[in-house]
Amino acid sequence: MSQVTLETDLSGVVGARTAKPLEKSFGMKTVGDLVMHVPRRYSRRGELTPLSGLPLGEQITVVAQVLDVRTRFMQRRRGSILEVRITDGTGSLTLTFFNQEWRARELISGRRGIFAGKVSEYRGQLQLQHPEYELFDNREDAPGGEQLDEAAAKAWAETPVPIYPATAQVPSWTVQRAIELALDALGPVPDPLPSELLRGEGLLPLHRAIELVHRPEHDADWRAARDSLRFREAFELQLALLDRRRRAAAEQSTPRPHGGAALERFDAALPFALTGDQRAAGAAIAADLAEPHPMHRLLQGEVGSGKTLVALRAMLQVAGSAGQSALLAPTEVLASQHFRSICEALGPELVAELQPVLLTGRMPAAERKRTLLAIAAGASLIAVGTHALLGDAVMFADLGLIVVDEQHRFGVEQREALRRKGAQPHVLAMTATPIPRTVALTAFGDLEVTTIRELPPGRQGIETFAVPELEMPNRAARVWARAVEDIRAGRQVYVVCPAIAAGEVEAGEELAADEDGAADGAARADARAGEQPRPIANVEDTVAELRARADFAGIAIAGLHGGMSGPEKDRVMQAFAAGEVQLLVATTVIEVGVNVPNATIMIVRDADRFGISQLHQLRGRVGRGAHAGLCLLMTTAEQGSVARERIDAIAATSDGFALAEVDLELRREGDILGTEQSGGRSTLRLLRVVEHGELIIRTRELAGELLERDPELVSAPELAALLTSEREAGHLDNLAKS
Ligand code: ADP
Ligand code: MG
Question: Taking residues 141-170, what's their average pLDDT?
Fold first, then answer.
C-alpha cells in the first residue's frame, strides 16, 4: 500500500464495511476527515476499587480474575446475555454483555485483567453492563504465574479514554477502532502552519496533536492536543475569511463619487440632524462607494436607530452618477413599507427624478412588466423588493449598490444572486440583530462591520414586563385592561401570536423553534401537570376572543398574517398605520421595520415561542413616537426553564448588544453559525464562538500579520493549498448562512 496521508480514501484504510457507515453518519470520506473527528470528552477508568463494598451507580475500576462464564438466552426477545463472574478475593461481581457471545472466547475462567464500568444492580446482584476491560497477557507475565503488574494496572486505570461523538449506527468504540487503524497506518503528516507560528504560539506539530488527541496518556496530553487543533481551526478560518475579503476587495467596480446633487438636496430638506453614529457610518460608506473596488459592509444598529436613512443616503450618492440601487427586504410587508417611507423621505421632486419602484412576487402582470422595464432601462434608480428582485427577469441597466435589509434572513447565495446582476456592485447589509464581535468575526468575517449605537433623540423608551400567566393570573388579566386603556386614550396596540390558527404555525416565518430551539426549551407547566396542553396562541382565535369581550366593544380589531395575500396584508397594515385599526393581532410578519409611531403597547402571547432577537425586534415596534412604549411578554413557561430565562433577560435590559450576549449563552452553538449540513462537513469542530472569543481575536491578528507579510502564502504552500480547497468547497458559505 502506498503511503497513507490525510487525503487517502477512508475505505482503503479501515475497510469498506466500516467506511460506509462513517460516511453516512458523519460525512467522512478521507483519513483526514476521520482523524479530525475529535473526542467529545474523555472519561477515566478510575481509581482501583476493591470488590467488597462497591458503590452503586459509580464508575469503578477493578483488577480481578474471571471466575465463570455462562450464556443465557432471553425469553421475550431474540438474543443472548453473556454473564461473566469475576472476583478479586474480597468479593465478586457479574459482567453482562448482550449479544456478544464472542467475548466468551477471551473471557475464560482463570484469566485476570482490569475491568471498568458503572455499577448497577439487577435482581439484587451487582453488575457492570458492557464494561471496558483489558486482559493481562499470560505470556508477558513473570514465569510461573499471572502476576499482576500493579504499576501497569494503575497506568491503565488512569489513562484517559476518548469518548467520540457517535450515532446509533456508529457507536463511540467503532469510531475509536477505526481511528486506531488509521493512526497506525498514517505516514508523516506535513504541518501547514509556518514553523515560527508553531514556536511562537507553543503549538504541537499537527501529527503529534492528532496522535495525542486520540491516544493521550495523561490529561495534559489531550488538553495540549485539543488546544493546538483548536488554534489551527481558528487560525485557518480567519485566514480564509481575510483572504476572501482581500480577493473581493481587489475586484474592480465602478466608483460612485461623493455627494451629488440628489444627496445635497435630500440633506438640505432633512427635517432633523443626523446622529453622530449616522454621520460616521455615512462617511465610511461614502468613502467605500467612491473606491473602484466593491464595498462589503455590514451596518448593525438597534431597531429605529436610523439605518434605513443611512442606506437611503448611500443610494442617493450612487444615483448621483446615474447608478441604480436595489433594496432587498425579507417580507412583502417590509418591502412595501420601505418603499412608502423612501418615497415619503425623498419628497415629490426627488421621486419624479429617481422613479423608485416596488417589486414583489404578487404584482399584476402589466404592472410587473412596467416595473421590470423601468429597471432595465435605467429610468428607475431605486428598486425596492422582496426575493422577486432575485428573479432572472430582473435586469438592471447599471446596478451600483445592493442594500440587504435584515441580512440574517438571507443566505449568501441570495446576496450573490443579486450581485451577479451588476458589475461588482457595492453591498451594504443591514441588521437590527446585534451581533457580538466574535460572532461577527466568525460568521461575517469577510464583511466590514459598522455599528450605530446612538438612537435619534427624543425616543421615549420601552418598558418590558414578563407576564407569567400561571403564577400571576392577575397580571395576565391586567394586560387586556391596559390595552383597552391605551386604545381609549387614542393609542394603538399590537398583539403577536406564534400561530395563524389553531394547530397552524405560520409557514415561511421562522419561529424560535427553528431559530434557537426556543419551542423545545419551553417547558410548559400545563403540559407537565399532565393536563391537556392549551393550543398555541393564534391570530384567528385571539381576534375572535377579543372581539367577543365586552370591554373591547367598539374597538377596531384586525388580524394580519403570512397566509393572507399581499394586497390584503397591505390593506390591513395601511389601515393600522392610518389609525383605522386600533388593535392589530399578527404573527411575526410585523417583526421587522414596521413603523407606526402611535402604537404604544406590544403584547406577545406565548412569548417563550420566540427567540431573544425576535422578541427584541418585536418590542422595537412600539415607543417609536411621542409616547413611551410598553411590551408585555405573556408566557406559561415555568420559572427556571431556559424559555423563562430568555424572557426575563429581555425584560431586564433594553440593550440589544447585552441581549445578544445572553442569547449567545443560552443558545446552542450550532444555531448561531447555521446547523450542520446533513452528510456534509460540519462547520466548526472545536471552536466555540461563545467560549473562544479571545482565541478568535488573537488568530484574526496573526492571520492578518501573515497575509500582510506574505499575501500569496509563498512561505506556507500547504496553507495556500488549504485556502484554495476551502474556496472551492465553499465551506465558508455554509458558515455565513446563519
Ligand atoms: P432602522 O432602519 O434602523 O430601524 P429607521 O431608519 O427606520 O431605523 O429610522 C426610524 C425612524 O427614525 C424613522 O422614522 C426615521 O425617519 C427616524 N430617524 C432616523 N434618523 C433620525 C435622526 N437622526 N433624528 C430623528 N429621527 C430620525
Ligand atoms: Mg429598519
Answer: 66
